[in-house]
Amino acid sequence: MERAARLAGPLLDAIPEQMELSPLGQMTDEERLVADFHGAGMSTGPHPMTYCREALSKLEVKRACDLPRVPDGQYTRVAGCVIARQRPGTAKGFVFLSLEDETGISNVIVNPDLYEKYRLLINREKFLRVEGVLQNQDHTISIKASRVLPISISEAETQSHDFH
């Protein structure tokens, strides 16, 4: 491969190119995602949400970049990889989630009762779909959750910043 990028020079010109095929099969998208997250803590290719966007769009799940065009007070759906879970002591039991998709980050507000109902999902799942009312206050957009669902995207070991 390096010979394609630059000339080898007179010292290496006499050495024949070895064009043997790799004994390894091509990695699947899932294998690549698992390897990427294991080795680098992130995907070096498409975001995991890219692989399910078509199905999510059919369910009217918005991308993070679409949220500024959703009217304040409208019921909507978002989904993504959980990258942060926060439960500040001053927030009276409210939990704040950050969901990352292929276009950006969606902020989610979970009231204490809903958190208790979905505690295991919220604390353990790597990818979530959230339904609720969009709040746009001074261009700060968040979804006030009314329903939280797990979504199966990848077995990759994603990391989130939790309750700090």
Give a structural overview.
With 164 residues, the protein is α/β, with parallel strands linked by helices. Helices cover 23% and strands 30% of the residues. It has a 5-stranded mixed beta barrel with strand order 2-3-4-6-5. Strand 5 (127-137) and strand 6 form a beta hairpin. The mean pLDDT is 86.
What is this structure, in a nutshell?
The chain is α/β, with parallel strands linked by helices and 164 residues long.
Spans of at least 5 consecutive residues whose pLDDT stays below 50 are none
- Principal-axis shape equals elongated
Strand order within the widest sheet?
2-3-4-6-5
Q: Helix segment count?
A: 6
Q: Give Rg in angstroms.
A: 22 Å
Mean pLDDT over the residues: 86
Distance between the termini: 46 Å
How much of the sequence lies in strands comes to 25-35%
* Helix fraction bin: 10-25%
The largest sheet, given as strand count, sense and whether it forms a barrel, is:
5 strands, mixed, barrel
The secondary-structure class comes to alpha/beta
The total of beta strands comes to 7
Helices and strands, in order, run as HHHHEEEEHHEEE
